[in-house]
Design goal:
It is a single chain. With 273 residues, this protein is an alpha/beta fold. It has two domains: 107 residues, Vaccinia Virus protein VP39 (Rossmann fold, 3-Layer(aba) Sandwich); 121 residues. It contains seven helices and 15 strands. The chain binds S-adenosylmethionine.
């Protein structure tokens, strides 16, 4: 969904984000996986003060009320999503809707449980960094861990009549989401990790000894040891692809006003593949 006309200052970005974020609800596997995660923590949620950070339409806030939360703060920075969530959640007196960036939110009571979904296909490329700047300390953060995994395959094995090997090679240095179907390609090795309270903004990954001329990257979301969702199975997070041009690459994430800028570079002399 793309907005094709010029809109008044400030409106375009907020409406564009609205369209981007509502499209996540096409991914039922993602939403169901999160709802299962909440149900698995029903004992922690019952009677608790909870925060749905970046609540979008507020489905997780609603689920936490149904699981017995005493109060739920549904915090959303986007004005259009905030309005939609506030409208949906008026039926629940336990819910307080807050139109604020989560980094500015200062609840007057201590928070037991926080749920969030700020992950991009490259883990850090959307808004997960905002959790480093919270003004409160939740006792339990759901989920608390994610890993950006990598894998290697051969261009010839996945190329098709449109995205030919020649096209793929032109993409050197570009990280392209959804270039190919994930199929059964496995995620093979960790590239970057996130834990609540422990972010990695820059990583170097060494592929020496690994075979393949096409790199793909995919997200895995965990709570503790339990895998919640992963790229390929949840369409919200497609694999990200790039032709291999060396044995080492560097990924750097720089938070900006709206999301996060991603810098990617191969560190070694090009291979003649
Ligand atoms: C990927 S969506 C997830 C929505 C909802 N939690 C869900 O999973 O169904 C991320 C949401 O976080 C909101 N958001 C992004 N940065 C935020 C911030 N700093 N503070 C509050 N909300 C934010 C976005 O507007 C969007 O609604």
């Amino acid at each position: 969904m793309d907005i094709l006309n010029v809109l008044p200052e400030g409106t375009f970005a907020a409406l564009d984000d609205l369209l981007t974020f509502i499209s996540i609800y096409d991914d039922r596997a993602r939403t169901q996986a999160y709802l299962r995660l909440l149900r698995a923590h029903r004992q922690a949620i019952a009677g608790a003060v909870c925060v749905d950070a970046g609540c979008g339409m507020g489905y997780f806030a609603e689920a936490m009320v149904r699981l017995g939360a005493r109060r739920v703060y549904a915090v959303e920075a986007n004005p259009y999503l905030y309005a939609l969530a506030a409208d949906r959640l008026t039926a629940y007196p336990e819910v307080v809707c807050v139109h604020q960036p989560i980094q500015d939110f200062e609840p007057e009571e201590s928070v037991d449980v926080l749920v969030h979904e700020f992950f991009g296909p490259l883990l850090y490329d959307e808004d997960v960094h905002v959790l480093e700047a919270l003004r409160f300390r939740p006792r339990l953060v759901l989920p608390d861990r994610a890993v950006l995994m990598g894998g290697l395959t051969w261009i010839e094995a996945v190329a098709d009549e449109t995205v030919t090997p020649a096209v793929v090679r032109q993409l050197k240095g570009a990280l392209v989401s959804g270039l190919f179907d994930e199929g059964t390609l496995p995620l093979q090795f960790p590239v970057a990790c996130w834990r609540f309270g422990k972010a990695e903004r820059e990583v170097v990954c060494d592929l020496s000894g690994r075979e393949g001329d096409l790199l793909y990257l995919g997200l895995q979301i965990y709570h503790g040891d339990r895998l919640i969702c992963q790229a390929g199975r949840c369409e919200n997070w497609p694999y990200v692809w790039t032709p291999r041009a060396g044995d080492r690459f560097r990924l750097r994430f720089v938070p900006v006003e709206r999301g996060t800028d991603v810098y990617f570079a191969w560190e070694e002399v090009e291979r003649n593949r």
